[in-house]
């Protein structure tokens, strides 16, 4: 599946040494465990590569008080670590109201968390899932949607606040089941899903209206 026009995607290795951090970024994770430092640094390296692809000068991407990346003026984006890789997806904020990206291993979720992740309708769909990966796809789709809407709402949703349906092999929609200004209940967020090399990746890109 192709990314929407106007977005930049870049990758970095979360297992590599925690290099390339700017001073404000390094301070934010000075007390973090080594694995967290490596993941954080990989996210910032990937994000700066994506900034360059957008034609933006290199810049610090410090951690905001809510722990989300604080993007340079005129830019919005999302970072995800998972399944042994790290990706950053960025766009100009004049074009995009919010971006969400999630990476997950192509493995079923543990049975004991399915009721936490899935609505009753989604649980019913799992009963028809011959391949066993629907639960992970649902989780991945919700995570990307949460990140995309958060750029506007600044609200943390629960898993049961969204209900996901798949519209084909590479598309899904997530329906909002609660009040979450500026979004109204029944808002549907469109997303893309791709599976390759043992990884499930989801993207939700909200155009600026």
Automatic annotation (TrEMBL):
Stretches assigned to the 4'-phosphopantetheinyl transferase domain: 98-176
GO MF annotations in UniProt: holo-[acyl-carrier-protein] synthase activity; magnesium ion binding
Reactions catalysed according to its record: apo-[aryl-carrier protein] + CoA = holo-[aryl-carrier protein] + adenosine 3',5'-bisphosphate + H(+); apo-[peptidyl-carrier protein] + CoA = holo-[peptidyl-carrier protein] + adenosine 3',5'-bisphosphate + H(+)
Binding site for Mg(2+): 102, 104
Cofactor: Mg(2+)
Domain 4'-phosphopantetheinyl transferase N-terminal, first and last residues per copy: 25-90
Pathway named in the protein's UniProt entry: Siderophore biosynthesis; enterobactin biosynthesis
One GO term describing the cellular component: plasma membrane
Subunit-level organization: EntB, EntD, EntE, and EntF form a multienzyme complex called enterobactin synthase.
Protein name: Enterobactin synthase component D
Origin species: Roseovarius mucosus DSM 17069
Taxonomic lineage: Bacteria, Pseudomonadati, Pseudomonadota, Alphaproteobacteria, Rhodobacterales
